[in-house]
Amino acid sequence: MNLAQTLANRYLKENKPQVNVGDTVRVNVKVTEGTRERVQAFDGTVIAKKHGGISETITVRRVTYGVGCEKVFPLHSPNIVSIETIRKGKVRRAKLYYLRDRVGKAAKVKERL
Known about the structure:
By secondary structure, this protein is mostly beta strands. The chain has one domain (about 5-100): SH3 type barrels (Roll). The protein contains 1 helix and 5 strands.
């Protein structure tokens, strides 16, 4: 292995969360405000997974008060405390960008039983 792969393997998380596109997840993130540090949760639907290895990311979308908000989370970041799967989604696509244009019940993903 070359030096870049060796460094990347050192920072990989051992127990990577099992997250798929369409799942509803709760991402707990460390937030630093001045000298204080706290954990903040972000609930939403995973609409995309990208890359692999140390640079693997997921895009999580949620709608609050009628405004859509998307965040991209690096899976192997030390600021990510945990990722919990709330619901499994039944989808047939790798990217769910079409949910951005949907409103109300049309923006929901069916649950996989």
